[in-house]
Design a protein that fits this description.
single chain, alpha/beta, 8-stranded parallel β-sheet, two-stranded antiparallel ribbon, globular
Length: 295
């Protein structure tokens, strides 16, 4: 597993026209009866394995949210570790993004680094920017891992802090020059990631599909950097607007996540077929809108 490079893996998936990120938010209580086995660990592991086998051919990434595993203590973390190892075996070409939203002071982050990459064997991790680059250094220094920085999240209350206006001076974003101006905090974060934090070419940003205008603005700021885009499916993000706002100069650059809309597409015995069907449907829509103009 030491030769896995997140940026190379995700670009290879884009080259194959794969942009769907399957969110493995495998909440135990919502797993269909047809997938249940004895105990939390076996139920989650076997459910995830079935989803991975059904969707891997069309996925650009898998993204387990650690909260749905930590909720069950040691059992959940064992299930998560086994799931990621299963993905490496069943779909070795598909990277795993650990959605953990980690950040702390630098030496504490070393514990998070070891958890994400040494214990769980993820290829990328989400982090938040609030403590700055100095604190995130243990993550940012990992050249082969993806470091995905929260920028404009998909939740309804995201603007409470992320839209606060901050003063900037000098060059800001692509082609913008200011003596002194004010921009939303999320745009400043995007600017910092693109111009200062991405020295190893391993950064990406998180921008919700529920905010397509902001997504387009951030794409302009970060250039061709990957954008992880949650909010499609159950959260109501529009696929066409997302693609047109989120793709980069190569008509790629997007990691478009759907979680509940795929893995819980059916509560019945056909949950595997339903997951595959929804993944293909989203895959087809994304590629349709990549090659057509907005009407």
């Amino acid at each position: 597993m030491g030769d896995r490079n997140f940026r190379e893996m995700i670009e290879a998936r884009w080259a194959a026209d794969r942009f769907v990120c399957v969110g493995l938010d495998s909440e135990y209580e919502k797993i269909p009866e047809a997938a249940r086995k004895d105990g939390v660990v076996e139920t989650i592991v076997l459910f995830n394995r079935a989803i991975v086998e059904a969707t891997a051919a069309y996925a650009c990434a898998f993204k387990p949210n650690i909260a749905f595993y930590e909720a069950y203590g040691d059992y959940g973390l064992i299930a998560l570790q086994r799931t990621i190892l299963d993905i490496h075996k069943l779909a070795p070409e598909v990277p795993v993004i650990l959605d953990a939203k980690r950040a702390d002071i630098g030496n504490t982050n070393m514990g998070y680094v070891r958890e994400a990459f040494d214990f769980l064997h993820a290829d990328a991790v989400t982090v938040h920017p609030y403590l700055g680059a100095e604190a995130l250094a243990p993550f940012l220094e990992l050249k082969d891992k993806g470091i995905i920085v929260l920028c404009r999240t998909s939740n309804p209350g995201a603007g409470e802090l992320q839209d606060l206006q901050v003063g900037v001076s000098g060059r800001f974003g692509k082609g913008f020059h200011h003596t002194l101006s004010y921009v939303p905090f999320h745009q400043y974060v995007a600017h910092k990631v693109a111009t200062a934090w991405n020295k190893n070419g391993n950064c990406a940003v998180v921008v919700g599909a529920t905010y397509p205008r902001e997504l387009a603005q951030i794409r302009e700021i970060v250039g061709d950097i990957p954008i992880l885009i949650p909010g499609i499916g159950a959260q109501g993000g529009d696929v066409e607007k997302t693609v047109k706002a989120g793709m980069n100069s190569h008509s790629t650059g997007m990691i478009i996540n759907s979680s509940r809309g795929i893995i819980f597409a059916s509560k019945g015995n056909d949950f595997v077929d339903a997951a595959r069907r929804e993944t293909i449907r989203l895959h087809d829509l994304i590629n349709q809108y990549r090659t057509t103009e907005v009407s």
